[in-house]
Each structure stands twice: as C-alpha cells, then as structure tokens.
Amino acid sequence: MATSTPLRELPPPPKGLPLIGRSLEYARDPMALFRKQWDGYGPVSPMSLVGKDTWVMLLGPDAVEVALRNADKAWANGPAWTYLVGPFFGRGLMFLDFDEHLLHRRIMQQAFTRDRLENYVGAMHPAITNGLATWTPKPDFQAYWALKDLTLDIATNTFMGGADHTSAAEMEQVNRSFIACVQSAAAIVRADVPFTRWHRGLKGRRHLEEFFNTYLPERRATATDDLFSVLCHIESEDGERFSDRDVVNHMIFLMMAAHDTSTITLSSMMQFLGQHPQWQQRCRAEAEELAARVGTAPGLADLESLTSIDLVMKESLRLRAPVPVVLRQAVKDTEVLGTRIPKDTFAIVGVQYAQLMEEYWTDPETFDPERFSPERREDRSHRYAWAPFGGGVHKCLGMFFAGSEVTALMFHLLLDFEWSVDPSYVAPMNNHSLPFPKDGQPVELRRRPR
Ligand code: HEM
C-alpha cells in the first residue's frame, strides 16, 4: 500500500532464549506479553518465537484489521500456519490461499448452509442428552474434561453420522491422535525425532488419514446428513467437487477446528455462569420457557431465541478467545500503520488483546454480557475490537455451527444441572497451543430434578 510519509523500520526483536525466543513468555501469560509489546512499541512490534526472530506482532484493532482484511493481498495463511502445525493439519481450508482458497471455500460453504445446520442440530440433541446422562455430579467436577468428551461425542454424530459406524475404542484412538496433532504446535524440536511432540503428532496424523480413508468409500457411495458424507457430495455453484484427498484433509482440519474451540468456549461459559448465579438463573429461565414451549429438541430458530445465552457466549469469547492469535506471513513487501514489513516476515495477529483494551471496552476485565445488548453494543466501537472468529476471507466458516452447538449444549446443561464456582477462582491456563484450564476447571455440580 503506497503512502507519502517515509515508513518506519521495525526495530530488532528483544533477545529471547536461544531456539524458542519468547515462546515461554507467551505460554506463561500471553496477555502480559501483549501488554509489554504494546507499551514498548505500540501496535506493530518485533518478536522472536519458536525458532525464528523474523516475527512481527500486530496488536490493537487497527493493526488486526490491516492483516485480516488483507486489501493488498500481502498476507498469506498457508506458510505461517504450516510453520506451526502444517504437517498435522495442512491442506485444511485455513491453510489455503488466494485463488485455491476461494475455490475450496466456495465448495465448503455448501456444507454450512442453514438447511445443513438444521440437520446437524437435529443430530446434536441425542448426543448431548446421552452424554449428560453419564455426568456424575460432585463438588469438584472437572467440567473441562467432561465437556471435551461430550463435544467429541457430538462431533461423532454430526461429523461422522453416529457411533454405529465406529467403535468407542476407535473414537478414543481418534481423540488421542487429535490431541497429539494439536499439542505438536508447542514442540521445540520441530523434526521427526522419536519421543518428541512432533513425532507423536506425525503418528497421530497418519492414524487420522488411515481412519478417514477407511470410511471414505462408504460415504461416497451413500449421501447422508453427516458432515463427512456432505463433503463427499457437495458441489460449488459451478459444479466443482472435492477429491478424496481433499475430503480427508478437510475432515482432519474441521474436527480440530471445531472440537477444542467449542470446548474452551463452553468451559469458560460454565466458569462465568458458576461465578455469576444471577446470569445462570436468567439463562435457565429462558431455557425452561423454551423447553415448555417446544420441547427438549429445539431447532435452529428456537435456539437463536435464547438471547441471554448468546450474550454470555459473546462475553466469554471476548474474555477468553479460544484462538487468541492468528498467524500470517508477508508474501511481498508491505506496511502496517506506517511500519515497513519486509517480504517473508511472519505475523502474530493478536485478536485477544483488542478484546481487552480499555480504549474499546468499559471495565474490560469484568464479566458483563450486557455490553453486547442492542442498547450498548460495545463491540461496535471498532470493526475488529471483537473478532474471536477472525475476519476477512478466512473468517471462521463454522461460526454459526459453533454458535448452535454451544447454545444447544448450554440449553440442556441448564435444564439438567446447576453449578457454582468460587467467585475468586482464576482458571490456570495452559497456553502452549489453544488455551485450556490446566486444572480441568472444577465446578460444584448438582443435578436438577426434571
Ligand atoms: C467457538 C468456536 C470457534 C472459534 C472461536 C473459531 C475461530 C476461528 C478463527 C479465529 C479462524 C480464522 C483463522 C485465520 O484467520 O487464520 C477460524 C477459521 C476456521 N474455522 Fe473456526 N472457530 C470455531 C469453531 C469452528 C467450528 C465449529 C468449525 C467447523 C464446524 C470451524 C471451522 C473453521 C474453518 C473451516 C476455518 C477456516 C476458514 C478459512 O480459512 O476460510 N470453526 N476459526
């Protein structure tokens, strides 16, 4: 993008530890690192991370907007995400760029139409009620792990067409393979060396490919409502379709994209609702009213009428973004807010930081779902002040899927249980890859009489 004023050069990055740069600082407390960068340099700052010192950190909604809107097509996803987790999720939609990305996105959009979402929601309800029936209330119930199992069951139903096709042991192995792939993001040794995270991730990826390849012919043969089958049969408006390899690559990425993100959102919501009983009661009253009106398997439009749950979801995504940063690489020389960015620079785009900036939010650290109410709409302070689903051409394609899954699960949870969390509890987060509470997020859980 051309400007008339001379561009500022990026200063050299402060020295971090050899090999890992400041990755450990990020893992310990991402917000503290963001603040330090912002206070020291402003929205565009130099950084050294995971074996490279040619990173730039983009903070604040203006800088986030430049990278995500990508008006001059200077920023690419593929090389950046590939560096972090490429061998494990590569060739998923998020890893593709420009014309190829557009082609695949046009096809995949057909898997997320409103009619399709309605089918997925229909398949979620039995998975949720069966899963919740196995929850055993206790004073230190590990909500995060229970939710992770439950969202995997939901994925089995909506993505795979139900557990009839697969055994519980097989799905358990699939889950372990996903965890191995996700955890590889934090690997220090980024090569296939035995006993390392990277090695386990590669093994996990091979297993996932075998798994999806085994079931693919059956899905090609018969069209059903699950996402796997849908990917085998959809076409863009111009009649383009996915190859077998595409279907497998997209399934592996989609399972990852959907699973951890929804689990983190739900566990944050459980924490905040446990700490704010008046909000829990308000959400429950809406859920009970809906259940009385339409029963316990509401469709998409009915779920969308649960406005308090929606406010709580938005506020939870603001306070704890499941994807706190997204990555890009400059594929040509460019600039961000007056700073020259040379070709090949990697960028960390700090979505989470903008969501907690005092310039855009009142009392940003406070849980206050009403800030998203029609009267206040604080998220309108800047287009990129709230961007947990990203923005631009790579904006999350599963955003409405995620919203319906989280709302459906919360609806059942509120009807079946009540829970509390100590108001002073602060979740100890593991930030090595996507954030999650290291202590499994204990809540005091009680079953409600129906
Ligand atoms: C609360 C849950 C979720 C959050 C916070 C979330 C967040 C994100 C973000 C930030 C991106 C953009 C990445 C980038 O710009 O590089 C993204 C992309 C994507 N997400 Fe999600 N996601 C969630 C759930 C889901 C679900 C449930 C699905 C699928 C069922 C999904 C599918 C995708 C896909 C396909 C992309 C790539 C889009 C593209 O590159 O064109 N996500 N997500």
From TrEMBL:
SUPFAM superfamilies: Cytochrome P450. The keyword Coiled coil does not apply. Keywords: Heme, Iron, Metal-binding, Monooxygenase, Oxidoreductase. CDD domains: CYP136-like. Its cofactor is heme. PROSITE patterns: CYTOCHROME_P450. It comes from the Bacteria. Belongs to the cytochrome P450 family. This is Cytochrome P450. It comes from Nocardioides caricicola.
